[in-house]
């Protein structure tokens, strides 16, 4: 009986704490619920249906796994998927180049901060602007790149974005160009955290530049490399803006990617159900990379 | 030994300058093309500094000609500023809740928030579009602002900073009888001010550059943002490349300005969390 006031006081404190907690996270949680969680569930349900969102909700028809089965026979989808896989190649290239630049810029140059800004410019510029500029730079007949190539004696320079063989590599070059700044900044931060005396004792042992890089720098930044690899692969799968503005999948779908095909299927051909099954395959790819990350982090990375 | 060192540095700097040129040239070409007459744009050898200037005419044509660039600009500023403010407030609140309020189900809810982080935005465009129609958010700036404001990334990033606040500061407030609301506004927020600046600048850059969301969730030209605007301008005005470049420069310039001012915050934010937009 004597305890009652303290108990009520305590439980009212707990209640108040709970109420405060829900009030603080409420707006964010509600937003994520409406704009992310519910759409994810809806997308999963719709992926088993044949439906177009301009028809009423009563026109919806559930077709089981047939959307997914159709995807396996869909040439444009398979080509887009293949292009996505090819574009993944840009990620390791970009990582290697930015590590090299980072090592040089970190300790060996004057004007370090100027270089940081220069390499970072593409990252802060909008993809739309970058894509428009590169469309002109790569222009097959009078773009400056081909004018230059012709001037130095190359008679038939590639038609870049207009050529079915060169279009995807051109996209890749642009992706690498955009992505280096981000990797570089992350690498520079990682290099800062390597203790200087490791290099000093290597110097005393007479280790050359390559030994220092391969025995000290490379192993010690491996968590960063792994992180950049995973985020790079995921964002490569998600890239949409660049394709939409730069090529719209042309020529002949040779630069189409999953997200772009998803966009045209959903918003131009209005096949909501089919588009949702593409969306879930995309989600599956991203999930797969994430799982490999969780598993691989313990296994491959030297801490 | 010392001379050798200086020579080595000079060589490395020179090498990096050459690599750096590949990063600057496209921007230099863009700016150069935007201030010259159309017929000089593709002239080769490239006239980096134009012999004949058309800067005034080009930019006037873009800004006050057929396409409402002033409107695009105003729309972008409005959407970007409001998204940044709402996103910072909502993210900080959630971050404080997830780090310093001890409520039931906190960990489970935080895991749910983190899981939304993995969902590619392209995967949910279609249902988002439907929900926008149902809630009458389609073709409104409000919808775009809301969409940009709720991000697991913001919550996660700010939570890291809130976790860094020593409990003693907050406990001192509690001793004085302050509730969570007062502690949050009066003690916690001021302590993470540099982190707020970092997140705000990153969110500003991402929103300003966002193209996919305006493309899908806006329809009226009068509501278009600058990214949508220059893309429309580039694909519809066909061969007026100097004007297209003037539009592109106009779209990028404010960001470069912000980056130059907030460079330290941006680079810190990127290197700290390794966050990606």
Element-by-element helix/strand order of chain A: HEEHHHHHHHHHHHHH
Number of domains of chain B: 2
| Outline of chain A | flat
Largest interface: A-B, 95 and 93 residues
Low-pLDDT runs of 5+ residues of chain B are none
Q: Name the overall outline of chain B.
A: globular
> How is the largest sheet of chain A built, in terms of strand order?
1-2
CATH topology term of the largest domain in chain A: MetI-like fold
Residues in helix, % of chain B: over 70%
What do the pLDDT scores of chain B average to?
88
CATH top level of the largest domain in chain B is Mainly Alpha
Q: Care to count the β-strands of chain A?
A: 2
What Rg of chain B do the Cα atoms give? 24 Å
Tell me the distance between the termini of chain B. 45 Å
Helicity of chain A, as a percent range: over 70%
Alpha-beta content class of chain A: mainly alpha
Q: Mind telling me the CATH superfamily name of the largest domain in chain A?
A: MetI-like
Query: Under the CATH scheme, which architecture of the largest domain in chain B would be assigned?
Result: Orthogonal Bundle
In CATH terms, what is the architecture of the largest domain in chain A? Orthogonal Bundle
CATH topology of the largest domain in chain B: MetI-like fold
Notes on the protein architecture:
The complex is a heterodimer of chains A (303) and B (277). With 303 residues, chain A is an all-alpha fold. Chain A has two domains: 4-67, no CATH class; 69-300, MetI-like fold (Orthogonal Bundle). Chain A is built from 14 helices and two strands. Chain A has a two-stranded antiparallel ribbon with strand order 1-2. In chain A, α1 (4-46) packs across α14 (272-300), α4 runs parallel beside α8 and α5 crosses α8. The longest helix of chain A is centred in the first third of the chain and has 43 residues, at 4-46. The model of chain A has no long low-confidence stretch (mean pLDDT 88). Chain B is mostly helical and 277 residues long. Chain B folds into two domains: 2-61, no CATH class; 67-273, Orthogonal Bundle (MetI-like fold). In chain B, 74% of the residues lie in helices and 0% in strands. Chain B contains 13 helices and no strands. In chain B, α1 crosses α13 and α10 (193-209) runs antiparallel to α13. Chain B is globular and about 70 Å long. At the A-B interface, α1, α4, α5, α6 and α7 of A face α1, α3, α4, α5 and α6 of B.
């Amino acid at each position: 009986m004597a305890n009652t006031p303290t108990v009520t006081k305590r439980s009212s404190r707990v209640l108040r704490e709970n109420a405060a907690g829900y009030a603080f996270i409420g707006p964010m949680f509600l937003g994520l619920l409406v704009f992310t969680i519910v759409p994810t569930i809806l997308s999963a349900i719709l992926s088993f249906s044949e439906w177009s969102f301009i028809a009423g909700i009563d026109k919806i028809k559930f077709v089981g796994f047939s959307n997914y089965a159709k995807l396996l026979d869909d040439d444009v989808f398979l080509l887009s998927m293949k292009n996505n896989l090819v574009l993944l190649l840009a990620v390791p290239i970009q990582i290697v180049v930015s590590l090299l630049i980072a090592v040089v810029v970190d300790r060996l140059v004057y004007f370090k901060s100027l270089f940081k800004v220069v390499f970072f410019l593409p990252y802060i510029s909008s993809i739309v602007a970058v894509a428009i500029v590169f469309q002109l730079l790569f222009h097959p007949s009078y773009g400056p790149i081909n004018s230059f190539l012709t001037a130095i004696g190359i008679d038939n320079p590639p038609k870049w974005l207009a050529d079915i063989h060169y279009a995807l590599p051109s996209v890749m070059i642009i992706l690498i160009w955009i992505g280096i700044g981000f990797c570089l900044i992350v690498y520079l931060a990682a290099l800062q955290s390597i203790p200087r005396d490791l290099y000093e004792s290597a110097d005393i042992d007479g280790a050359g530049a390559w030994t220092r890089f391969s025995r000290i720098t490379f192993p010690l930044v491996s968590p960063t490399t792994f992180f950049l690899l995973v985020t790079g692969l995921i964002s490569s799968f998600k890239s949409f803006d660049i394709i939409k503005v730069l090529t719209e999948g042309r020529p002949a779908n040779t630069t189409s990617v999953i997200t772009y095909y998803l966009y045209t299927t959903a918003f131009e051909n209005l096949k909501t159900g089919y588009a949702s099954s593409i969306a879930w395959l995309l989600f599956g790819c991203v999930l797969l990379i994430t799982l490999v990350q969780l598993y691989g982090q313990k296994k491959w990375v030297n801490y | 030994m010392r001379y050798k060192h200086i020579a080595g540095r000079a060589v490395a700097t020179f090498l990096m300058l050459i690599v750096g040129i590949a990063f600057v040239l496209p921007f230099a070409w863009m700016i150069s093309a935007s201030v010259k007459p159309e017929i000089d744009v593709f002239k080769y050898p490239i006239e980096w500094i134009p012999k004949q200037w058309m800067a005034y005419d080009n930019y006037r044509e873009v800004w006050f000609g057929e396409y409402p660039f002033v409107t695009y600009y105003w729309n972008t500023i409005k959407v970007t500023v409001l998204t940044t403010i709402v996103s910072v407030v909502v993210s900080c609140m959630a971050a404080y809740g997830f780090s310093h309020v001890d409520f039931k189900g906190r960990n489970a809810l935080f895991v749910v928030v983190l899981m939304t982080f993995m969902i590619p935005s392209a995967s949910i465009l279609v249902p988002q579009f439907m929900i926008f129609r149902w809630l009458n958010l389609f073709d409104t700036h409000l919808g775009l602002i809301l969409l940009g404001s709720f991000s697991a990334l913001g919550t996660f990033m700010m939570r890291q900073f809130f976790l860094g606040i020593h409990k003693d500061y907050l406990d001192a407030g509690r001793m004085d009888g302050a509730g969570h609301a007062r502690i949050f506004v009066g003690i916690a927020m001021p302590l993470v001010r540099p982190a707020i600046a970092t997140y705000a600048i990153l969110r500003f850059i991402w929103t300003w550059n966002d193209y996919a969301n305006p493309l899908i969730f806006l329809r009226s030209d009068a509501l278009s943002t600058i990214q949508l605007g220059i893309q429309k301008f580039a694909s519809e005005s066909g061969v007026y490349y100097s004007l297209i470049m003037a539009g592109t420069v106009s779209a990028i310039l404010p960001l470069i300005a912000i980056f130059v001012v907030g460079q330290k915050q941006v680079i810190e934010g990127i290197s700290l969390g390794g966050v990606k937009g």
